[in-house]
């Protein structure tokens, strides 16, 4: 066993692996201030504890749900604040949920339009193509 495992500290690769993120993302989260600065060895290597790994897992789960970095920052502050109001957490999640609903509706609309265009295109040797015609149309653009 190495000193690192005996003292329950991990290098960046080990911490990243335990949290199922890349070392590059760990550095990114540190640069954004989502992860506090960690202790370093005399030679400058970062040393992470279970606490930082737990925070990395929190960030990963929040990213998997599509939260933005500013939203994650707010959620982390609330997570660490034991006097928090769940009302604030719910507000952030509700705004994010509404944004997801809006984006899903936009995607469904895009899919329907594209499906219609694909259906109308003959896809043969002829040069006429409703897909290209639609893409080439000007919608409210000034000449």
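-> sequence recovered:
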């Amino acid at each position: 066993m190495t000193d690192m495992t005996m003292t329950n500290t991990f290098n960046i690769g080990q911490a990243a692996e335990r949290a199922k993120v890349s070392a590059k993302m760990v550095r990114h989260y540190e640069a954004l201030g989502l992860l506090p600065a960690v202790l370093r060895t005399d030679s400058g290597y970062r040393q992470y504890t279970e606490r930082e790994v737990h925070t990395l897992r929190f960030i990963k789960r929040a990213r998997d749900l599509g939260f933005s970095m500013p939203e994650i920052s707010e959620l982390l502050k609330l997570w660490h604040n034991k006097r928090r109001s769940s009302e604030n957490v719910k507000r952030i999640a509700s705004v994010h949920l509404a944004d997801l609903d809006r984006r899903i509706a936009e995607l469904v609309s895009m899919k329907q339009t594209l499906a219609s265009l694909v259906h109308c295109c003959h896809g043969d040797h002829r040069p006429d193509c409703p897909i290209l015609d639609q893409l080439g149309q000007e919608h409210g653009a000034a000449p």
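The chain has two domains: 1-68, 95-135.
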